[in-house]
Design a protein that fits this description.
Strands 3-4-5-13-8-11 form a six-stranded antiparallel beta sheet, with no helix packed on it. Strands 10-9-12 form a three-stranded antiparallel beta sheet, with no helix packed on it. It has a two-stranded antiparallel ribbon with strand order 1-2. β9 and β10 form a beta hairpin. The model has no long low-confidence stretch (mean pLDDT about 95). The chain is built from two helices and 13 strands; from the N terminus they run βββαββββββββββα. With about 190 residues, the chain is mostly beta strands. Helix content is about 10%, strand content about 35%. The radius of gyration is 17 Å and the shape is globular.
């Protein structure tokens, strides 16, 4: 018996480009992010057609026991003093976790539990992030280049954006970064 060899889908680690299987692509524009940025006046002054991020994912089966694989490409930019970010969400099935792999760029992963406690993890090429169940998560691009992160999550996880309709408990702005840098320097 001769085994067959099937080429699996591929990811280009330097760019985050997916290939070798059918893809689903979704682009989120500034106009889609109503009530996401703190400075609503600044948001209203922005071009609503400007792309903030794109998610490319393999078109794979869904259902119990299946996994999705996708890459978020988050553009650099700001609305007011707040960095471009993804909408952020809890999973609809709260117990479901997720893994992120930093591919390119410089950013932060904002994590928040149901009680509103937050923490930040730096995202950069080679970083690996375990997002535990019951944890909301959002990518934030603090650099001047595209931020790309590969994600793997259960296809049954779903997304719950309404639980965060009032926003995350922490906002990341240029001023916030300066304060965090001072805290690190002062130990």
């Amino acid at each position: 018996m001769n085994p067959s060899i099937t080429m699996p889908p591929q990811v280009a680690w330097a760019s985050g480009a997916l290939s070798g299987a059918p893809l689903i692509q979704k682009t989120t524009h500034l106009g889609d992010l109503n009530n996401v940025f703190a400075d609503d006046d600044a948001w209203r002054c922005c071009d609503p057609t400007l792309a903030v991020y794109r998610v490319d994912m393999f078109d794979t089966p869904s259902g119990e026991g299946e996994l999705y694989t996708g890459v978020t490409h988050l553009n650099p930019g700001r609305v007011g003093n707040e960095f471009f970010m993804t909408r952020g969400h809890f999973h609809a099935r709260r117990e479901q976790g997720e893994i992120y792999f930093g591919l390119r760029g410089e950013g932060l992963l904002l994590l928040q539990d149901a009680q509103g406690q937050t923490r930040l993890e730096p995202v950069r090429p080679g970083s690996v992030h375990h997002i535990a169940g019951f944890t909301a998560h959002r990518l934030i691009n603090i650099g001047s280049d595209m931020l790309s992160a590969l994600a793997v999550w259960p296809s049954v996880a779903g997304h719950d954006y309404t639980a965060l309709s009032g926003g995350f408990a922490l906002r990341v702005t240029a001023d916030t970064l300066k304060l965090m840098a001072k805290e690190v320097q002062n130990g």
